[in-house]
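hey so i finally got around to running the thing on that chain from the lab meeting. sorry it took forever, my laptop kept dying and i had to restart like 3 times. anyway pasting the input first so we r on the same page abt which one it is
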Amino acid sequence: MSCIVGVDGCKGGWIAALCDVSITEPPILRVERSWIELIRNLPPGSLIAVDMPIGLPDRIEGSGRGPEQAVRSRLGERQSSVFSIPSRGAVHAADYADACRAALATSSPPRKVSQQGFHLFPKIREIDAFLRAEPEWRECIFETHPELAFATIRGAPLLHPKKIRGTINPAGMTERRALLLAAGLPETCLTASPPRGAAADDALDALAALVVARHIAAGRGKPFPDPPGRDSHGLPIAIWSFVPDRPASQEPAMSDQPVPRQMIEAAAERIAGHARTTPVMRLGTGAFGSRADVSLKLECLQHAGSFKTRGAFNNLLSLDVPAAGVAAASGGNHGAAVAYAAGKRGVKATIFVPEISPAAKIEAIRRFGADVRIGGAQYDDAQAACDKFVAETGALKIHPFSAKETIAGQGTLGREWRRQEPDLDTVLVAVGGGGLISGIAGWFAGTNVKVVGVEPEGSRALQAALEAKAPVTVTVASVAADSLGARNVGQLVYDVSKDTVDHVALVPDAAITEAQRVLWRDFRLAVEPGGAAALGALISGAYKPMPGERLGVLVCGANVDLMKLAELTA
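ok and heres what got predicted. didnt touch it at all, straight out
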């Protein structure tokens, strides 16, 4: 192998970024009119990573080929599209109507072809015809996706879309250039004008593919799915990314963690004076009939009623906020926190909530000055509405859990807790999307403190991910669904939690409501279901401490409907 190449489609044909394997010289960017011309102008034995589908199944099950389904969750809320590429018959159809008919006949559930995806078909056919005619190239050409490459470099989904309404988004381009610079590409090739026939975003996508090619050449390529499948013509079907550099025998140091302690320290300094230091209530041995020495960390007394305020402030204080302000999708607590933090910073906030959000939480968001928009029946509908708004306006999206800035902000709670209770053995932490437990576990990693997650039996996204060794989607049905109802924790939360969370305890809804009753009856603490879930694990025996174990229980949310609480405690 003498050359590595990253390729993307462009208006002029194909844009290629080339360099030798040793990367001693800056990459060369050039445009070729056809795939055949591109290949003819490459040295023999070149390794190519291309942003274009390879391998076409005869039938499609679900939302596109297996690779598309495998990578979507890794892009967070999908800053750019991963098209549902249909069957071979649809891709080779003569016109759009024929393509739709072929797609409907060869997909389950039946799916048509998007107009935008249809425009890719000529280029897909170029590669398909070439690889069927030249089988010796099948092991040298790898399908990739730029947004997956960028997310792998960053260790989390991107913050800014590449385009807004078809127009280049400067913030998105700046973010991608910074990531390519961090990946080792020279600044000169990132800021130079692209070759004639290609746009600036095409050039960055080709360079992102080059980064993937470099890692594949070094033996660090990672396919989705793993192992890759093959279609009826023997062509591989997988989207490739990579595993970041690290010797296999070396345990990751704290600084190598996705959200290292240094990042949490910086967040604590950043939000000091903006978020409250919340108290600890020490109850002693035997509390709640347990054998442990129990204390409660009362984060329910935080501004806006939950820990989410920490992550909201860290996002607002560490990222550039555009004129369009910030946007968030939320079941309630995240939206209230973003609204509160934005109000304190004089920033416009637009919050999308589903119809299932409690009235008390919606009222809190409005009270803090945000523009509240009902974004559909369920949380996923609100998230889709939020994503559309961000794409149209350029607002900064603040993710409730799948962002390093959010996790680091929540991790300040662990840092604060450790200083208040230096002798803890175990902490119980409720889990929704996982941003809170990721931050806390990231802070306690490497110490003698065991971090145990608590999820409702009917909402177990983190436990399912730890069992499957990858993020998976679960169904949600719980009394705490408005705050602990995430269907998928996402890649970043999984990557932080898999080595730092001891295990997850599942609690029935009855134990959660009983914990709410106890907190009101014995301590006059009005706590929402999600905020009481960790105590529910202790009360129900879902977590059984050892005699004398120094156990910290996090009470993390106070945005409760007081009428419902009155009914529970009557």
